[in-house]
# Entry
Amino acid sequence: MKFWISTAFMSSPELPKVAQMADQAGYHGAFISDHLIYPKDLRSPYPYSPHPDGRPIWEPETSWPDSWVLIGAMAAVTERLMLSNSIYIAGARPLLTVAKQVATASVLSGGRVALGAGAGWMREEFELMGQSFDDRGPRLNEMMEALRELWKGGWVEWHGKHYEIPALMMEPHPAEPIPIYCGGHTDAALKRAARYGDGWIGNAYPWDEAAGHVARLQGYLREYGRENDPFEIIVGFYELPTVDLYKRAEGELGVTGTMCMPWAGMSDVSSGAHAGLLQSAERYREPIERFAEQIVDKTR
# Structure
């Protein structure tokens, strides 16, 4: 089982140091969450909202650092930690921008980067970036294929329905293929992961709901003839973290990785993130090391 720390809603200046602690404690990776902005006139409903009006679960002032700037900072202070997204709204950005940023991060980190991509839900982000929202799903499907071509090095090009890239060089290019993981648990998202992805990143769920999503995903993998391909299945659980929980997830469901927040329950985490204030990252050290000793080390 691979343990990924989730960094959503945390204070941005602390995150490189938190990543360094996770690296030293033996975690597999860190996930970076993504939003560009929070519009004052937000009309797009958040799909996971518990509120009748569909508003997000975070406040407008919540800190969402740029994923690739932060990943660069984390890579500079870590040695083994994998770095990815949960989830990056790739389709809200131009194709060449995504290709350049991810490739550069991969090269500078020594190949410790994966792209975790999702279709997104906030129309306002797409429109402010000049990207089409209504066809975001098909565009993301094609973008994933195009990125793999653009990352090959040398003269590269792409000619598709949504993107047209003439022959060009884009350096630096990654030494090895960059994994692309897909997020979301709608049928369209699971089909995207099964058909185009190297893995799937889910949310955190109760056991039965997680098992249902994974079973649907595995069904689509069989449909596309990929049931024997290497494929990461990463999902979090609402259950109390135990060694038995993760061994069961690995053995019964085929889950290969999980998201965790060893500091969950610290009362000032979300308030610090919403204010975007610099606080001492050292407060995370004890729960990171304790979770590694009690769970991570014993689940290998």
Remarks:
- The first helix runs from residue 15 to 25.
- The beta strands are 2-6, 29-32, 82-85, 115-117, 156-159, 164-168, 180-183, 199-205, 232-237, 257-260.
